[in-house]
Automatic annotation (TrEMBL):
This is FNIP repeat-containing protein. Keywords: Repeat. Pfam families: FNIP. It comes from Dictyostelium discoideum (Social amoeba). The keyword Repeat applies.
Amino acid sequence: MNNDKLFFKIWRNQYLRFIITKFRILYEKNKKVKFLDYRDFKRYKEKEFVLEIDYQGNQLLKDGDLSEYPMVRIINLKDGIFNNVSSSIFENTLIEKIKFPPYRYNAPPLLTDINKLPNTVNSIKQFPYDLKIPIPKSIKKITISSNYYFIRDFSLVNYLKFSENENITNLKIIPTWRANSDSILIQNLFPKNLKTLDLGSYSQILNENVLPTSLEKLVFSSGYSMTFYSNKLLSLINLTHLSLSHQNVLLEPNSIPPNVTFLSIANLGNPVVDNSIIPRNLKTLIINPAFRPDYKGVSILYDTFPNSLTELKCEGFKLASIPKIFKNDDNCFFPKSIKSLSIGSNFSDGFKPGFFFPLKPPASSSSSSLCNITSITFGYYFNEIILPNILPKSLTFLKFGTNYNQPFLKDSIPPGCELKELIFGDYFNRLVDHTTIPIKSLQVLRFGSNFKVPLESIGFNKFESLKTFELDSKKYPYHIDLKSLEFPKSFETLILNRIFKFSSNIILNQDCIKNIIYKK
């Protein structure tokens, strides 16, 4: 008997179903609890359901206290009281992750015998690195709070003997406001089998053979300006995820490891981006321009994006070679592999027919292969009229940013497009009806807080597949009678701003709608 049949055999029994449901509710209610007092911690009744404890009491936990919670896996300890704690409080437990309070410079150690932790502990957050004690072999994931002295010289971490610990696979260094990344990483500093590394605000040169070749994910979670030099990281052949959150990132040609498939750059400072900067195996690219008072835009050259790319999010770009693209009608700016696209607002010089797909494809190409984009999200400031032949027929999801408020034309959404979800931003206040958007395929329609068009003009009864309609308007001026709107038989959910719950301007007629949700 397979698992599905066994489950349904048990589930059909009313008594067993009652017991299962009861314990499920108890689990959801008690799996994570917070204690402000030691007495509450001791008196808690449903201890056997607790998986995570956030202890904020002023009294230290004693040996044996945690063992009263047989299923607990994670504990978060309060700041200010856990100094010189003995690891014996964790004995006879199944705890896997310990979250210490944020490290304070010159504060006494939180846990002086960390090397005696039980083998079940595999993750420590806020590791007290001032302790010159080797990290236990059981630890696989560790987060270190850094201070000024640690950041100035990464070699100080040598006394933790990272390079000798083959079990650590995840290391994160959290910078503080005192951080000053003016040291250069040296060789043999990190665990040999490290998979994930977050270097915090490190902003200096990354030389060859400094980072372990085992790395699969590399993150810089903050920092000022950093330059990635050519061919310095080519040894990282296993790296597939790279996230750069510096305030200004400069990329030289061939500076990104070749096998990276996910690249996120919070603030790109390059004035021009071409295919020597973007690796050719990318699947996801999230990229933004540097925020500078003199910012004039980043120019992206034609053929910059690789044919492997399926998801692209970019803001604030200028398209340097738009004229070249549209002289040849069998080309378009984006590769055919892209399925999800989120773009910004600086497209006044290039947002024209043929932008997303070729207008005159080669005779050998089928119409279905011209474009695979199914999702487009326009940025906050985007506010341009969508002309015919702009959007691809392959679209199923379309979202406009907050500032968008342009007339929606009859062929803004191309004929034959099976759009399923259409979302307008908060400033949109234009007529949209069954003549301008697909009536057969659309399932979700959403208007923002400034929408003040009479709903009767939309013609809901013309939509064959509409399931959800959302109106987030906070000052909607018209009277609404839901029954007179004549929603189609497919309709299920109406989402309204919570203001409507107390408004006399709406007649609910709950019978004609399955579900009404009030949004905060």
